[in-house]
Amino acid sequence: MWWEILCGLVIYRIIRSCFSDDDEFSDFDTSDSDLIFSVADKLEKIYGGKAFIGLRIPDADADAGIRRDIDIVLVTKQEAMVVAVKNLSGFVTVNKEGSWACTGGKKHKAEVLPDPVEEIRRQVAVLESYLEQRGVALPEGFLGCKLILPNPKCMITHSIDVLPEVVSYDKWTQLKSETKGGLSGWFKGAFRGGKNGLQDATYQKLHFTLGTAPMWDRLEVKGGRSVLGEFIEFKGHQEDMQALRNIKRSKVSRIMIEKAMMFGLIGRSRVQLLYIPRDYRTTDASASEWREIAVRSSVDVLFQPSNSKKVRKFKLTSLVSLSLGA
Known about the structure:
about 325 residues; alpha+beta; five-stranded mixed sheet; 7 helices; about 25% helix; globular; signal; NERD domain-containing protein
């Protein structure tokens, strides 16, 4: 009798763990972050180079502590581009004040937002200033910008479509992998680097500077979804918190969550964490540097998404990895 009850409890715990992750994210929208990673992945595949995602660059001309959020910076040896990704849906027009108005979208009400083109131009200026402060001098015209509208339900007016910085959904879908080696017409305005490109030393320094710049943390959840935001802390049993005491932004750059291991008849489980110590001298990590700890599967991660003022609680077992910005 007791054996049957214990077996039933174990089976219940296993089934619950399999389905609880979906319930945890049923009310959580990751579409904006997912879209940014999708756009970055497509640009890397077509043009090569490296896409730096979720940068938060200090604005020297603004109040202290003000940072400009940059969705993507795509870097090749010949050119670089600041990319903003707007997940707009509905009909988009320009107001007399220059702001954009979106109606008939997913929010079912008119949405007004500051001119995104002006915003991305400002991002370019802030990034150039930041790079200069860190000793990276780029050739004139090397850094361009594009505003990509990849939502198929986004309809824009002609006055927006003709702007050289704007990439509509139709133009975005026309960008194919076979264009590699020859820039499509709507990208030529963004890529204006010198014929010889950057010297190796400058190119490497640009990569290092962007790789160590302030950026959003990245939480990768099961199902292939990702969330940009800020890691707050772990929550759990005192013994687990003691084991996690060294998992801090200043000491760790990336954490991988392994599968939970079951112990005992009551289904108690522990989760293996692999983490890489932060090294400010390089952005590359060696496999031999990974370290390992084990904690209870009941540990939670507190994380604030970049597009929300609310701190969310995620189960450690529902996560794949956590990357901590510098």
